[in-house]
Amino acid sequence: MLLIILFALEPIQATPALSEPLQDGDFCNRLKVTGTGTFEVGVSVKDRTIALEYSNFMYGDGDLEMDTGTVEAQRATSIPAEDNGSSMLLNLWEGSRITYRGETPMIGMKYIHSKAFWGGIGAEITESYSVTEMDREDASTFASTDPTAYTTDPKKLEELLKASQVHMVGISTRNSFNGTWQTDAHMHKMFSKDIKAHEMFNGTFEVEKTITFRESPAAEEKHTGCYGIDC
After folding, report:
1. What is the C-alpha separation between 101 and 62, in angstroms, rounded?
2. Of the four listed, 25, 108, 135, 200, which is most buried by Cβ atoms within 10 Å?
3. Is the pLDDT of residue 184 over 90?
4. Are 151 and 144 in contact (CB under 8 A)?
5. DSSP category for residue 156
6. 227 lies in a domain?
């Protein structure tokens, strides 16, 4: 089963890109593990500077193979990534490969939110599962800042603008499981837009899914000093 959902907002309603701080703060977490037994794994990030709320946790008791990494940065140029051969500039990237088998269900939840109160676009995605078997590859992507603030070189500026993903919230997964798996996505723009998406599967399934909210603020039109005046 293939599920692909893409959402984009009209430029007239676009949220301005957030300014990047001169002094960057970043976070990196990498874990690779193979074994049998009980486990708990979790990462949580709240960063008002880039309007990000993110959490990802799982726990279980069984046979586990996992290779996962999370990188978060307040300047998008700190996390270059690739998507179908095209470069992207992100403020958050998370990717994992997981295989699990056990009599006790493995329970997990992922939440990613571009918080409107902090300057984001108000988009949020939640993924949750309770499974006795799972093979999956997944990735989470988030961008909210303007990567062009600290360059004046025209060529470099063009490259940064082409790679910028502002604003963007997304997850993608290839997932084979026995149990329950669910996703919910929501985006709300006051007085103008309300989007919701929901899927739930209970049983034995194979799913490929991509869901992305993306908003590209339109560049401000530049005018001469005589604009609107007969001079």
Report:
1. 6
2. 108
3. yes
4. no
5. H
6. no
